[in-house]
Amino acid sequence: MMGNQTSVTEFLLLGFLLSPRTQLLLSGLFSLFYAFTLLGNGVILGLISLDSRLHTPMYFFLAHLAIVDISYASNNVPKMLANLLNKRKTISFVPCIIQTFLYMAFAHTECLILVMMSYDRYVAICHPLRYSVIMSWRVCTVLAVTSWVCGSLLALVHVVLILRLPFCGPCEINHFFCEILSVLKLACADTRLNQVVIFVASVFILLGPLCLVLVSYTRIISAILRIPSGEGRRKAFSTCSSHLCVVGLFFGSAIVMYMAPKSRHPEEQQKILSLFYSLFNPMLNPLIYSLRNAEVKGALRRVSWKQTSV
Using alpha carbons only, what angle is made at residue 125 by residues 124 and 129, rounded to the nearest 5 degrees? Predict the structure, then answer.
């Protein structure tokens, strides 16, 4: 199908239309952010692996979130950095489609992982006596696998619908990577079906999970307020507020990008929001969980103490 309908063999990623000096400055800044993203999420994964006190369902899902963030950033940022330094900012058709698939797959998976994390907090606070039964390791594994499989299958639907379209030019993508909305603008055919599927998927993967998270946290907050111990309330609020910060950052920017009315400069809006998705959000997640979570900070101290004592 690609051979019969697609005459474009590569795309030109316009990226950020800035002066060479500014692009060089941004490449250094974004490289630093990317390094912090890999380091922060890597530290989270290492702590969860090394500290037995973090071998709980909550941190099991947090480990999956860290893997998604590393994968998500690594799918988009290296190509963006290369394009900031190179004059020839091209990407072949097949790698472009693969990048689109991975971008959608990781984004969908992160949505579902965040929902699983909110469900875990709901069970832990609202049904503490049944927590170990409800959130058994088998259940956690099934929920995590389901998140990855559903995210990948939904992304595959988008890619299949893209591959049915002919691309005969122009070949300039006004973005720094192969973002799905920017790719669709280059199709030489009607893309209304693709747009409808994207909207329906956004309702399913964004609004639906967000409603579940809000319902869960409404009940969680109600349960926290009934905890007689002030220390218990502070600990519960600390854990839940970290997750709510991550949920707000991720779902808020996603809804603005795919469901809100477009501004007068939709391409620039998409670039900024995609940059937030690809770089800032994966970098902020480990900071939010480490700075606001006493258990993570305690695990970091214990692991550091073990390393220095050895």
Answer: 65
Return the SS3 of 228.
coil
Rounded to whole angstroms, the Cα distance separating 228 from 199 reads 44
* Three-class DSSP category at 49: helix
CB-count burial class (<10 Å; 0-12, 13-18, 19+) for 117: buried
Contacts of 78 (CB under 8 A, 6+ apart): 34
Confidence of residue 226 (pLDDT cuts 50, 70, 90): confident
Are the C-beta atoms of residues 15 and 89 closer than 8 Å to each other?
Answer: yes
Query: pLDDT tens, 31-77?
Result: 999 999 999 999 889 888 888 888 889 889 999 999 999 998 999 89
* Predicted confidence (pLDDT) per residue in 154-212, tens digit: 999 999 999 988 888 778 888 888 888 888 888 888 888 998 998 888 888 888 888 88
Strands 172-173 vs 10-13: parallel, antiparallel or unpaired: parallel
14, 18, 21, 27: CA torsion to nearest 10? -50
Sign of the torsion angle spanned by Cα atoms 18, 21, 23, 26:
negative
Q: Are 199 and 38 in contact (CB under 8 A)?
A: no
